[in-house]
Amino acid sequence: MPWITWWQRWWRGEVCVQSTELWRRYFGAVSVQEVLRFSVREIVSSKQGRSVGKLEAHSSDGSLTVFLKRHYRLPWWQRITSLFCPGRSSAMQEWDNLRWADAAGFCVPEALAVGEQIGPGLQLQSYLAVRELANMLPLHQAIPRAWQALAPEEFRKWKTALLSELGRIVRRLHEARRFHKDLYLCHFFIAADCLHAGADLRQRIYLIDLHRMRYHRFLLWRWRIKDLAQLAFSMSVAGLGTADWRVFFRAYLGQEVLGPKEERLSHRVLRKAERYRWQNARHAKRQPKPYSAEGPPLSWDPIRSNSQAGPPPALLAGRALEPQEKHRQNPAPAAPEVNHNRRPLRIALCYDKVYPARGGMEVFIVDLIRRLVSDGHEVHLFAWQRDAQALPASLVFHRLPQRWMPRFLRPWYFAQTCERALQQHDFDVTVGFVKTWGQDVLVLGGGLHIANAEHNLLKYRSPWARWLARGWRFLDICHWSYLLLERKQFTRSWRPLIVAVSEMVKRHCRDYYHIPDEQMRVLHAAIDPKRFCQRDRQQLRHETRQALGIPQNTAVALFVGHNYALKGLVPLLRAMQVLRGKPLHLIVCGSRKDETYRQLAARLGVSDRVHFLGYQSDVRRCFFAADFVVHPTFYDPCSLVVMEALACGLPVITSRYNGAAELLSPPLDGFVLDDPHDYWRLAEYLDLLTQPDIRQRCSEYARLAACRWTMDDLYQSLLGVFYEVVARKQSRIQQVLARPTQTLGRAA
């Protein structure tokens, strides 16, 4: 191919589309970009730059259900290869593999359409559409179901026939020198009416997910062992034992008796399968459990419906919530029982400036003070400044001396003056919320500084930009000052009882400072739902939308945050660009420094659908005007924005770097991104919530999620922590008083 063709592909781009008559009858002649922006009813799986969605089409001939596999972010090496050799994208290769397998007599899904767009530059996007495998089950689900439904003798006969047919399929595949390279049980499908002993299984087992299948002339033994080891690794399901592997292996070889050569091959396969198990367990132990809106599916599954993660929003559309479904959700942490015989406490709270209008931790502190005072506790506040009108009159305020000093020294000065002031009083419990030391309880509402610094680097998509930011941080004296102060907090001989606002923060404490679990308590953040009164909601919603020029029936997403870069506004704006032409508006509020993002929205062509409101003293109007909340943050210990959204009955799209994601049950009440930079996946989630029926059902589950963990639960749990500290102090005093008596007894 002449070099001029490569240059034209780089400069202008090239599009290749192939489709069947059935696809054109339902969808017509559509471009690659149009297919990539199709609105699907359900996201079956989404990982590694690709997603699989369920698409339904209707015409006079009936309805057609299609599974659409879209590759919107492919590896760089595949982009370079496709630039010089078109047709090498994952979708195109799977299209060719499906056509070959169908011609060779294998049962595979019916391929309907494929397309790829190469360039301009190193851009590469593709899609593949296949017809739904209706009334079929993957083998890793069908085998346990048959094991439970059939009698032992019937199940043994059915299982033997199944493994024999499976061995015949794999043997035919390898004889043609085709290797699947992803040969797990979940990629074999069987008809649901074949789960009985007398079923004829020939040509009833389908093979899917052929995007990695390749033809090889050399090193056949290597790919053969890899395929067989993957299948042996996946045979750890209910109903299968070690003897069943030999049944399959004999059928694969076509021999009833295995010789020494075949035994050595079986041994090598099983040894590699054991290595897969070890690597899988090691990886699962190292990596935190990812939050994903599509649940635990690991690969493309044309009929999987997220049964392990609860019914998806598409299945919820059109029916009401059943009472038994409400109890299947993640249970809320149990609040401790209230002991009304407990004596009132003298409690000291330490925070530099308490102004609830600034939001965040200060709102929680004000709510906590009000509840403690109303319960009869004596509350003292040690701070530089406070909003006297927002605090109860019975609060005892201790104004600490304040003087000007550089930013990196302010936390040290506040912590030192706070420690000196506390030494002059006798309190039952002392509580710190910021970078202080010497308190009995330390509430990590803002997480750890070292974790915050590491996650701040994630907002840069380029590794080179992260490397430069890390070098600039090395020169930041504030970073080193805060890091030393944090080490002073956690490395002293007397460690406070730590209240982490999420499991993520607890994991950071354990990983960075080796704090034992018995020294930590996890209490997720919460808000007072009375702040979002529903009486004037419709009026405020109508007024806000009318002022912004947004139609009343148009879907509106809300983004709230102070640090727009850290909270993920850039990928959100790019997701809005992907959804151009869709009936969706975005409200952005929380910061006055938004000029850079206004310019970015104008460059992306979405400024007419993105409304920047800046700082809002009354954020209720924004919540009431919105239909769902988007918070794709790169770090948030436990975002109160998520709590506020759930209190308003709004679904939430956030990331796994948000501790509040632990309170969600995706995809019932929202979605959780694995990577905030993945704006194509974010666009898919936004597109799902623009559909009214799905959004309505998610809103119902969001209201249920808001009831599972409230401010009352948090307050009672935190009060239990305070009384636990008092009990520990009394126990230590008794131990100290008992030491002289023990010494005198030994002397006598």
Would you spell out the secondary-structure blueprint of this structure?
Blueprint: H1 3-11, E1 14-19, H2 21-27, H3 32-36, E2 42-47, E3 50-59, E4 62-71, H4 76-84, H5 90-103, E5 111-118, E6 124-131, E7 136-138, H6 139-149, H7 152-175, E8 178-179, E9 188-191, E10 205-207, E11 214-215, H8 220-233, H9 242-253, H10 260-286, H11 313-316, H12 323-326, E12 346-350, E13 353-354, H13 361-374, E14 378-383, E15 385-386, E16 396-399, H14 410-423, E17 429-432, E18 441-444, H15 449-456, H16 463-474, H17 477-490, E19 497-500, H18 503-513, E20 520-522, H19 537-548, E21 555-560, H20 569-578, E22 584-589, H21 595-604, E23 610-614, H22 620-625, E24 628-631, H23 640-647, E25 652-655, E26 670-673, H24 679-689, H25 692-708, H26 711-747
Parallel strand pairs: 12-14, 12-17, 13-15, 14-16, 17-18, 18-19, 19-20, 21-22, 21-24, 22-23, 24-25, 25-26
Antiparallel strand pairs: 1-5, 2-3, 3-4, 4-6, 5-6, 7-9, 8-11, 9-10
Helix pairs in contact: 7-9, 8-10, 20-21, 20-24, 23-25
Explain what this protein looks like in three dimensions:
The N and C termini lie far apart (102 Å). Strands 16-14-12-17-18-19-20 form a seven-stranded parallel beta sheet, sandwiched between helices. It has a six-stranded antiparallel beta sheet with strand order 1-5-6-4-3-2. It has a six-stranded parallel beta sheet with strand order 23-22-21-24-25-26, sandwiched between helices. It has 26 helices and 26 strands. Helices cover 43% and strands 17% of the residues. Helix 23 packs across helix 25. The longest helix has 37 residues. By secondary structure, it is of the alpha/beta class. The chain has four domains: 129 residues; 151 residues, Orthogonal Bundle (Transferase(Phosphotransferase), domain 1), CATH 1.10.510.10; 177 residues, Rossmann fold (3-Layer(aba) Sandwich), CATH 3.40.50.2000; 155 residues, 3-Layer(aba) Sandwich (Rossmann fold), CATH 3.40.50.
